[in-house]
Amino acid sequence: MSSKKRVCIIGAGMAGLTALKNTLEHDLAAVAYERHTAVGGTWIYMERKAGESEEDVHSSMYQGLHTNLPKELMGFPDYDFDTNIEESFISSELVLEYLQNYAEHFKLTPHIKLEHEIIRVRPRNEGWEVIVHDLKSDKYFVEFFDFVLVCNGHFTTPMYPATEGLDSYQGQRLHSHLYRTPDIFKGHNVLVIGGGPSGIDIVHHIHQHAEHVYFSHHLETEPRTDFMPNVTQKTDIQRFTADGAIFKDESSASFSFVIFCTGYKYTFPFLSVDCGLNVDVNWVHPLYKHCLNINKPSMAMIGLPHQICPAQLFDLQVRFVLAYFAGRKELPSRADMLAEMETDMQERWASGVSKRVAHKMGVKQFDYYEDLAVTAGITKLKPVIGKMMKACSKKYIFELDTYRQKRFKVVDDENFVQIV
Q: What cofactor does this protein call for (predicted)?
């Protein structure tokens, strides 16, 4: 038996893969459990099968999706995309291929158990008892670990708004989680709810097929949609009717489809109540710096923050918690970690942040990256990442029709150039 400390990694998507790679580099033993047949997480395209619930469909990937960040920002800090790919805003298939190549390059495959679902994680003595279901053999077994990294993603369980009259609406409805192709909307009036990147991109996807698209959002700045003449922007919905909706500006519209681009719930059904974490709407707590379980600091949640640079954040969070797991850094006291979390969250609540988006970073992300690196004494993100993120910010709102044509090139750790 190896004397190395053991780490259980839940999920082998983008977060799980970098968790596995960095854990092995810290001379810890690690196993990544993935319930699906391949690595890649949400970047794997999946159709909904007959009889499956929404939550059974792990991926939200739809046909024709291209990244809304350039590939120069989409990769991990120590592994670049293929330089033969000329485009910066690439297809989901290329991102999936990159993740598969990453796993192969760092020899991660022997440490990944595909078609293995985590059923229960609970604390036991100083470590963790993990019950695993081998889906191929339909057998259950128990493993014990010193640490747990939860990397199960948060694009699986749809969130819907509680809007008056929704039950009386007679048309068809679906969440963006299950949107796959635009052709089903041919000849229909469609309402799209939600002004995030997915909502705006789906409006762009379906407008050439639908008869008319109503786009309901509460963005402070209206997205530019003049190049889509059959798209009408609307305020939030006041209430649904049998064949449409009345909006908060008292206007109304009729439509036969509603697409809810209204986000996802953070869910961890495999965590026992004695793991010491609570989920209040979408606020997961108590966490030190949005990732380390304060009540049980041998567990960390990777990837909760949003409006971030995903691969870079995942890698940085993993390296942050591993500094403590591997014993290179000593954690503050529980009281100090709780006090810091309380100060952070009070500032967030005071600025209008709700529990639904409690882990949103946005413009704060760069301070967050710096804080993680400085606190744990680990390598910081390259300055070029922040510069390029700021240059690409909000382009999907103002330049939806053209921004994906741009191409970027990283010159060095500090600088980049726009080629096209």
A: FAD
User: How far, rounded to the nearest angstrom, does the alpha carbon of residue 210 sit from its chain's CA centroid?
Assistant: 28
Q: Are 166 and 156 in contact (CB under 8 A)?
A: no
Let me know: does 341 contact 286? Beta carbons within 8 Å: yes
Tell me if 240 sits within 8 A of 165, measured CB to CB.
yes
How far apart CA 300 and CA 147 sit, in angstroms, is 8
Q: Residues near 394 by Cβ (< 8 Å), separated by ≥ 6?
A: none
The pLDDT of residue 49 is 77
User: In a 3-state reduction of DSSP, which class is residue 227?
Assistant: coil
Q: What is the pLDDT of residues 191-225, one digit of tens each?
A: 999 999 999 999 999 999 999 999 999 999 999 99
Average pLDDT, the chain: 95
- Cα 37 to Cα 56, 112, 153, 178: the distances in Å are 14, 11, 16, 20
Question: What is the distance between the alpha carbons of residues 14 and 71, in angstroms, rounded to a whole number?
Answer: 14
Q: What is the pLDDT of residue 60?
A: 87
Which among 14, 8, 12 has a CA at the least distance from the CA of 314?
14
pLDDT confidence tier of residue 326, bands split at 50, 70 and 90: very high
| All domains in the chain, ordered by first residue | 6-157+264-396 (3.50.50.60), 160-260 (3.50.50.60)
DSSP string, 152-212: --SSSEE-----TTGGG--SEEEEGGG---SGGGTT-EEEEE--SHHHHHHHHHHTTTSSE
**Contact present, 407 and 86 (Cβ < 8 Å):** yes
User: Which secondary structure element, helix H or strand E, spans residue 260, and what is its range?
Assistant: strand 257-260
Q: Select from 177, 151, 155 the least CA-distant residue to 13.
A: 151
Chain centroid offset of residue 300 CA: 16
* Chain Cα centroid distance, residue 185: 27
